[in-house]
Design a protein that fits this description.
The complex is a heterodimer of chains A (about 325) and B (about 140). Chain A is built from eleven helices and 15 strands. Chain A is α/β, with parallel strands linked by helices. Chain A has an eight-stranded parallel barrel with strand order 1-2-3-4-5-6-7-14, surrounded by six helices. A three-stranded antiparallel β-sheet of chain A has the order 8-9-10, with no helix packed on it. In chain A, a hairpin with a 2-residue loop joins β8 and β9. In chain A, α3 crosses α4 and α10 runs antiparallel to α11. The two termini of chain A are about 30 Å apart. Chain B has a single domain (about 5-145), classed as Nonspecific Lipid-transfer Protein, Chain A (2-Layer Sandwich). In chain B, about 45% of the residues lie in helices and about 15% in strands. In chain B, strands 3-2-1-4-5 form a five-stranded mixed β-sheet. Classes of the chains: A alpha/beta (about 325), B alpha+beta (about 140).
Chain lengths: ~325, ~140
């Protein structure tokens, strides 16, 4: 059985090197600007770093995919066009795009450049994916994390486009490409500025071992002494609703698909993606190593999840729990 | 978790003036900066001060950048990253990532979060094998277990 590509995150050249060393087939990266959805201070690639990363990856027979997956903003369209041009000039193996105007530009300007429809493109059914295929020639789609395994299979059977699914990483409310929640607190959202919780709006305050997180002055969570903390995003905050304080939207959780890898292989997905360009090279190394071992094993009949893999992934997870997310969902 | 040789240091460190250690660290950073961070202009640190504080040693250093060189600062820091020796050690040796330490409440950030994020990502994405290459043998081996 052909194995899917293992696609791993790199927020820096050091992380890209780790991904390649530990067995990623492809590494996805972004530029240092709002054209990608992990536009964080001190992360991402200059053109010189990208050139070094692509040279290394190609020398090792691996691919580099460049995420330009935010939405073009009025008056600043040339910045997104330029990002596509830079990716093409650098020799990227594909660009991961969401904005239809940008897809059209990339197809027109760089007909040889491989196009992937980003998870931010929010295409959850074969009709939407096929439309993007007809109009822009997309060759792969990254499926939003809202589909059950049966639905992933259904989509895969009805499109000629390669399917990429998330295999591991922090979960959000999974309204990818359609989430503007953080803009209510900060005026900025992932689609427009490439960040959920812009760091310039985040305040952490530690008082008597109680850690408070505020987003633009709004208290979004308070962690008791010793309690695990999470990213300061609105969707994972605890709020008072009907007299009780709880995770009113969702609890910090990580997606972990080790137990369903053989099913994903049977469905014929082309790639398994790891979330986390905001994380450290150490995270990229740890998660890539585990997913590489698991994927190689999943191609064999006697596949079983090694408890050591689970322990290693749990150690780097956000939140106290892991889930199969929508892949396994008894309700519809 | 902390090595024994730290015990006497922990007793003395809080009583020592910070300036000599701060100058030494900045001098070292200035020596290796061009080779270690060739693409970095440190504009994000100019006019700002950032503090690395070792909580179980009761000491730390505060530094800034003047556009050309790292400079030690005695002023209150705009951002502080605080962890125990064990936390900083694990990060330095590439044994754990800062976000995991943060989730576990073993790394604290206080002050300007964006500056802190920049500082964290700068330290975290430093090429550790290149850094080890500039260190004397035992230190290099310790850095790359």
């Amino acid at each position: 059985m052909a194995l899917p590509e293992l696609v791993c995150p790199a927020g820096s050249l050091a992380a890209l090197e780790q991904a390649i060393e530990h067995g990623a087939d492809a590494v996805y990266v972004g530029f240092k600007d709002p054209t990608n959805a992990r536009n964080f201070a001190g992360l991402n690639f200059t053109d010189a770093q990208l050139a070094r990363g692509i040279a290394l990856a190609h020398r090792m027979g691996r691919k580099v995919l460049i995420a330009i997956n935010t939405y073009m903003q009025a008056g600043r369209v040339p910045q997104w066009y330029a990002a596509v041009d830079r990716a093409a000039d650098a020799g990227a193996d594909a660009v991961i795009l969401a904005d239809m105007g940008l897809l059209a530009y990339a197809q027109r300007r760089h007909p040889q450049l491989r196009l992937h429809l980003s998870v931010q493109g929010s295409a959850t059914n074969a009709e939407a994916i096929n439309l993007a295929h007809q109009h822009f020639g997309i060759q792969r789609v990254v499926l939003p994390r809202v589909l059950t395994l049966a639905q992933v299979a259904q989509v895969a059977q009805n499109t000629p486009v390669e399917i990429e699914v998330f295999g591991f990483g922090s979960l959000c409310v999974m309204a990818e490409g359609r989430c503007a929640l953080s803009s209510y607190a900060t005026g900025e959202s992932p689609n427009t500025h490439g960040v959920c919780s812009p760091a310039s709006h985040v305040q952490w305050l530690q008082q008597q071992d109680v850690l408070s997180a505020r987003l633009n002055q709004i208290l979004i969570d308070r962690f008791a002494p010793g309690e695990a903390a999470g990213y300061p995003t609105l969707c994972k905050g605890r709020f008072e609703v009907g007299g009780s304080i709880y995770y009113a939207l969702e609890e910090p959780t990580s997606l972990n698909t080790l137990s369903v890898l053989p099913e994903l292989l049977r469905i014929g997905v082309a790639a398994i993606k790891v979330e986390g360009r905001q994380r450290s090279p150490v995270y990229t190394a740890q998660v890539t190593r585990v997913l590489r071992a698991a994927l190689d094993a999943a191609g064999r009949d006697d596949y079983a999840v090694d408890p050591a893999w689970m322990a290693q992934l749990t150690a780097v997870s956000e939140g106290n729990q892991e889930t199969l997310g929508a892949y396994h969902r008894p309700w519809r | 978790m902390n090595p024994d040789w730290l015990l006497p240091l922990r007793r003395i460190a809080p009583h020592l003036p910070e300036a000599p250690a701060g100058f030494a660290v900045c001098q070292t950073l200035n020596l290796v900066a061009r080779r270690l961070w060739p693409d970095e202009d440190f504009r994000w640190l100019q006019g700002k001060t950032a503090r690395l504080e070792v909580s179980d040693m009761g000491c730390g250093i505060t530094l800034g950048h003047n556009g050309g060189r790292f400079i030690h600062s005695g002023k209150a820091a705009d951002v502080t990253l605080r962890a125990e020796v064990a936390g900083f050690t694990a990060m330095l040796r590439g044994q754990t990532d800062p976000d995991t330490l943060f989730f576990q409440r073993k790394l604290q950030i206080e002050g300007e979060t964006e500056l802190g994020l920049h500082l964290k990502n700068w330290l975290d994405t430093t090429d550790r094998s290149a850094l080890a290459g500039m260190m004397p043998g035992p230190l290099a081996r310790w850095l790359q277990p």
